[in-house]
Specification:
Elements (H helix, E strand, L loop, with lengths): L6 E5 L3 H7 L4 H22 L3 E8 L7 H25 L1 E6 L7 H14 L5 E9 L1 H14 L9 H6 L11 E4 L18 E4 L9 H12 L9
């Protein structure tokens, strides 16, 4: 297969459209998407991937219909509680990034428990981007520097990076977006400066090991130059 990416990030797209094609409500697609995430954690680890980051809920997703947002929050709450057992049984270190202050107290507590229980696990570093936006993340990082007393003239790229939600994890080597869309949608804007992108028409609930192998084959054929010749 060639070189396996150390860090893979995925924009989990197409859950709602996948469900609609089957005559089911959008929330059914989100449920199947969550099940696929759990499955792919195992697949990623077996392939030798060390970091797996997923875009679960963006800062812009709050503008969706209220009933869909409510159902998503319930799904996330159930998923986070279930993840405590999953992380323990499968040696997964789970982190949640994004503006957690915008989430309910119950969700914040579930996140705290999950991160505490799994912090020393080593098989796979699994990150969930929740109430996350790349622009918001950069703004929050700069505000943290300002609040800590760093003079504007002393702010540099290294300091900003150290204050991003993803620190100290490495940047994604490969970004995958499912379901045919070809844009970042405000996901890991800083971190994906030199990531390789892979787009597929396959909706996330159908993205299985065979689909991942296609992405890995495409990645192995790339020549990563990081701005060089």
């Amino acid at each position: 297969m060639g070189s396996v990416p150390k860090h893979i990030a995925v924009i989990l797209d197409g859950n709602g459209r996948w469900a609609k094609k089957r005559g089911m409500p959008r929330n059914f697609g989100h449920l199947k998407g969550a099940e696929r995430v759990e499955e792919m954690c195992h697949v990623m680890a077996d392939k030798g991937v060390e970091y797996f980051t997923v875009y679960a809920f963006s800062t812009e997703n709050w503008s969706r219909p209220a009933d869909e947002v409510s159902a998503l929050m319930k799904l996330l709450k159930d998923y986070l509680k279930k993840s405590i057992k999953m992380a323990t049984e499968n040696d997964l270190c789970v982190r949640v990034i994004g503006d957690k202050s915008g989430l309910s107290a119950e969700l914040q507590e579930s996140i705290r428990q999950l991160e505490e229980v799994s912090k020393d696990n080593k098989k796979l570093k699994f990150t969930i981007a929740l109430n996350y936006g790349g622009r918001d993340e950069i703004v929050r990082a700069v505000k943290k520097l300002s609040d800590s007393g760093v003079a504007p003239g002393d702010i540099n790229a290294a300091l900003i990076e150290e204050n991003l939600d993803t620190w100290p994890y490495p940047d994604p080597d490969l970004l995958i977006r499912t379901s045919g869309e070809q844009r970042l949608s405000n996901f890991l804007l800083w971190q994906c400066a030199y990531s390789e992108f892979y787009f597929t028409d396959t909706a996330w609930p159908d993205f299985d090991e065979k689909e991942l192998d296609k992405a890995l084959e495409a990645y192995a054929a790339r020549n990563r130059r990081f701005g060089g010749v």
